[in-house]
Amino acid sequence: MKTHKHAFNIILTVLFLIFAQLGAQKKFVIVLDAGHGGSDVGATRKYENIGLVQEKDVTLGIVLKLGRMLEKNKDYKIIYTRKIDEYPSLADRTDLANRSHADLFISVHCNASTKSTPYGTETYVQGPDQNKTNLEVAKRENDVIFLDDKDRERFASYDPTSPESLIALRIQQSKYLESSLIFGGYVEENFVKKDKRYSRGVMQKNLHVLRLNAMPSVLIETGFISNAEEAAYLASDKGQDEIAESIYDAITSYKKRIDRNQKKIVEEPKELPLKNDFRILLMSTPNKYVVGDPALKGLNYILTIKENGLYKYYYSVTNFASIKENNLKTAKDAGFRNATAVSFIPNQDMNTGYYRLEVYTGKDKLPSSSPILKLLKDVERVKANGIFYYTYGNVKSLEAATKLQKDLEEKGITNTTIEKVYK
């Protein structure tokens, strides 16, 4: 009898440990990263009225205040990359976040300019950007890698402007980008509405401290140390408290959104599909962009349809109302404020026109040795305003056009555009 009782107690203990572990795993893990530290002071300015203001001190002050707020909530598990004036390598910061299976990574920084007039907040999410002007912040942050041997080894061969690095970044970060945009939107909205500050927006940059993270990640520039008024605000307890509280509220909103989505999956009855498909129209422009272009702001699943000389860029497709609304919000959070949902009737044939593929556009005429001309028959060529347009195919429905597009991709002909032609 004692043997059975002992065995039963062991089973109870094991079950308790399992459920305790499961309960622990349900915590929302947040990694808080106070930018710079130690010998890397970051941005710094000295003012007569407030003295020396250093980025490493401001970021640590904000992170510690934010951490204390979060630690009061039992649903959160908080991990710090540093809690004192030291310099963790960029590799250590991202490795810590990945090892911890974090749900969210927040890196806090301060901005600076060679001029004293710029001010306001910015939140960055990871995203390739080949524009030299837009890479200035990334270059400033990336300079830090030369302070640490581990970072030098990890990042020495990384060139943020090379196509190979950009492709790798897009693949690695695409599944976290949209969540990062959502959270970044909450942060900047709070800075404006709660703290009455000027927001410079949510942007994408190639930042080393974000690019290796396997979770939604943001880098928050809390203000300009080079601006005397903002420097005083950033160095003050009042300013740091307000910034920490705004980020805290953004985390709360983001967590509620995640919980709400999970609850819907469990509790809501199965949603019935709509009769039509819905795509989110991001913009109409005479400019042609390829997948991954910064103009598309990191969004994936883009369908481009040329119509009446304009390229229309549609994001995602669904026949569920809830997903349509989520897609619309994602597009607006990414910066497409005028985005709108457009209805498409599935498998609808055009009565007075057809679809074809624009397989090449350029100032130069394709040579007869071009793979496009060799692989495809009946390619049509038109020259307008000094640009050659090569088109192929004649199908009645959008679905047939997308299938034709995939067929060409399998043959190695990529970056084609579906064109809607009216007779």
Question: How are the SSEs ordered, and which strands pair?
Answer:
Blueprint (H helix, E strand, L loop, with lengths): L1 H24 L2 E7 L9 E4 L3 E4 H17 L4 E5 L9 H10 L4 E8 L9 E6 L9 H7 L6 H7 L7 H31 L5 E7 L2 H4 L5 E8 L3 H8 L1 H31 L9 E9 L16 E6 L2 E9 L2 H13 L6 E5 L8 E10 L8 H5 L4 E5 L2 E9 L2 H13 L6 E6 L1
Parallel strand pairs: 1-4, 1-5, 5-8, 6-7, 10-16
Antiparallel strand pairs: 2-3, 6-8, 9-11, 9-12, 10-11, 13-15, 13-16, 14-15
Helix pairs in contact: 2-9, 6-9, 8-9
Description:
By secondary structure, this protein is α/β, with parallel strands linked by helices. It has two domains: 241 residues, Zn-dependent exopeptidases (Aminopeptidase); 146 residues, no CATH class. The chain is 40% helix and 26% strand. The strands form three sheets. An eight-stranded mixed sheet has the order 12-9-11-10-16-13-15-14, sandwiched between helices. Strands 4-1-5-8-6-7 form a six-stranded mixed sheet, with helices on both faces. A hairpin with a 3-residue loop joins strand 2 and strand 3. Helix 6 crosses helix 9.
